[in-house]
Amino acid sequence: MAKQERKKVIVVGGGFGGLNCARRIAKNKNCDVLVLDRRNHHLFQPLLYQIAMAGLSPADISTPIRSVFRKKDNVRVLMAEVESINPETKIVGTSAGEFPFDYLVLACGSEHSYFGHEDWEDFAPGLKTVEQAIEIRRRVLTAFEKAEASTDPDELRQWLTFIVIGGGPTGVELAGALGEITRFTLSHDFRSIDPSAARVILVEAGPRVLAAFHEDLGKRAKRDLENLGVQLWTNCRVTDVNAEGVKIGAEWVQAKTVIWAAGVKPSPLNKQLGAPTDRQGRVHVTGDCSLANAKNIFVIGDQAHFEDAKGETLPGLAPVAIQQGKFVADLISREIKNKPREQFAYLDKGQMATIGRRRAVVEVGKLHFGGMIAWYLWLLIHIYFLIGFKNRIFVMWQWFYSYVTYKRGARLITERDWHSHAPRT
Amino acid sequence: MAKQERKKVIVVGGGFGGLNCARRIAKNKNCDVLVLDRRNHHLFQPLLYQIAMAGLSPADISTPIRSVFRKKDNVRVLMAEVESINPETKIVGTSAGEFPFDYLVLACGSEHSYFGHEDWEDFAPGLKTVEQAIEIRRRVLTAFEKAEASTDPDELRQWLTFIVIGGGPTGVELAGALGEITRFTLSHDFRSIDPSAARVILVEAGPRVLAAFHEDLGKRAKRDLENLGVQLWTNCRVTDVNAEGVKIGAEWVQAKTVIWAAGVKPSPLNKQLGAPTDRQGRVHVTGDCSLANAKNIFVIGDQAHFEDAKGETLPGLAPVAIQQGKFVADLISREIKNKPREQFAYLDKGQMATIGRRRAVVEVGKLHFGGMIAWYLWLLIHIYFLIGFKNRIFVMWQWFYSYVTYKRGARLITERDWHSHAPRT
Fold this sequence. Notes:
Two copies of one chain form a homodimer. Chain A is α/β, with parallel strands linked by helices. Chain A has ten helices and 25 strands. In chain A, the strands form eight sheets. In chain A, strands 5-2-1-9-21-20 form a six-stranded mixed β-sheet, with helices on one face. A four-stranded parallel β-sheet of chain A has the order 13-12-11-17. In chain A, a hairpin with a 2-residue loop joins β7 (about 90-95) and β8 (about 95-100). In chain A, α1 packs parallel to α8 (about 320-335) and α4 (about 130-150) runs antiparallel to α5 (about 155-160). The longest helix of chain A is centred in the middle third of the chain and has 21 residues, at about 170-190. Chain A starts with 6 loop residues before the first strand and ends in a 20-residue tail after the last helix. The relative contact order of chain A is 0.15. The interface between A and B is large, with 66 and 65 residues.
């Protein structure tokens, strides 16, 4: 075999797509891989709501990206922000300098979208990063503390009203966990709070929750949530959010704690690619996940708009990102050996969402079911896919402990400022 | 027995002193106990350096204060800031309203003191709260990331120079952990960093580290630290700190990461008591830990200046606070039964500090020793005193894992701001 020229592959983003792509390419010893992320850690997004709900600690579901590639000498990891991409010169500009590439894989994921109402973020944080999860945890736990100290019934009701906006899987998981907390935690740990004053409201603009799931499962989730005391307000459009609460249609609902789980938008990096984007801002990619105008640049996961053979757009789910990441890695390895490109085909292995302590809904092809078996399956799959042996043990133990005791392991309120002389709120 | 009037006891502070006091008083069914803290959690301070050094997660060493009293119906816990204390009317004013007391126990601990140079805090954060520990972790981990991305040798050296100011137990533990990280973590996870460029400097104004320990142990600690590559600069007084580094005497030492472990001052609440304080600001208390001018107000732990029978001032250590807390609880219970007060006597059970992975120094009465046996003893005692069964298992597992793999479990960098549109540094 003739000696091959080494290829430079840059992977941007250490999420599900980027990490799986880089791990696969790293096996090709003819490639030098550079992984760039503005974070130092891979975050297991599906369990992020557990940090917000004080069930897990950030480190339980995070792995340093460079630890993942500890033993891969052909992989370099840099914590840096990508600032520019030049498809012609094949150079990525970052906060840590410029890097040339032969192949570039963009897997930068998505962030929250407030559909033009960015000022709502202060009052209704979203749940995409560890920091946001900790902020939500701080707000939820503080609300209980304030309620316990409150002597005014109106104020008490405001502190004990929790509104989750958006009835997708994240919204359902958050509302379910909140329902559980208000039902079980309140009665034991607090002295003054009247549990009947606590309300958890899940607001959804569409006619039902879990719209992406089979209708049966939407109904099932509705019933499970209602059993946990969660009120489902479907067909309700949020028209304003402020420090006092949420405006739904023309009516204000007072609540001190509001969480946003209603929409995402892709990385703003997309604007730099000179490629067409869809209404949400996702880049249109061709059947091999590359850009039409730059065949050596690939965009995968939440950042891309991919239409399958049937003309349907793939959803922003972890399995899509993982499969695309591996597909692109294999494509690059094949192309280096002068083999032709193939087309990406998504293998739908199903989707799931959990509701509270031991309810979940699972959809696999035509099969769909809920209840406790679904929850065990959910648990099993989530623990299996957690990266890192130690984290798996930890998370299992945490769950087992919470399950048996109804306690939540990470119930600490941390302030936003670290200064010792900072004013405390 | 005649029916006794119920007594109102307020305990301010959920640290070692306050928590032990409140737990003991709670056993007396004739007392109603109110525990006030501006935090919702008890923090196991002796392991706080492990959060800063990415070995543990905040939740591992924190317990919600109200969980501790979950089953004690005569204890109420409120998260509130004490704003005023009126010894005459016997009323405590807080951010959550006013509360009358028969007995008041103040156990508010201490915070950092920069000896009048409060502006140094930005450049050299101290280690007293979870937030500060996370900030130090952020700075230390970011320094390695910046070093990995750096191409300028001068800049590289600055990122890889870590200065710890203060040679007490906290400073020694931080420097030891940093020595370990630079020695073992660098070589495996990073590609570009030259380990020989990394420096950890422990600066101490006095002639030796661990001044409160026997001289032999100071020497032992020095040797152990030097084995980990830590440079000990004793008799060195810090005269200035800024973003570039530390000025020692007349010379500037460039370092991007500086940690303050040099001094503490008691809670500012002391100024409100109308009682005499010492030079550090600690309140002078009488032999039964009460104020000379208000016998029903007790001040314990780091907040108090207590002179024992020999005229020696007790040090700011956890065992002092714990013993005083229990003593005051018993005193109150006895006094309610019209029994006379006794005088507090500190039973010195010794002190210890750990250096790196498996070295420690232990001093028990006249016995003092170091090395691996000391480390096992240190480990055993710290795990034993951790409150909460779950936390003990967690911390043991974390340690075991780190010990075997040399990995650190909580290596994630989190930002200070949670907004999705916040600028990233």
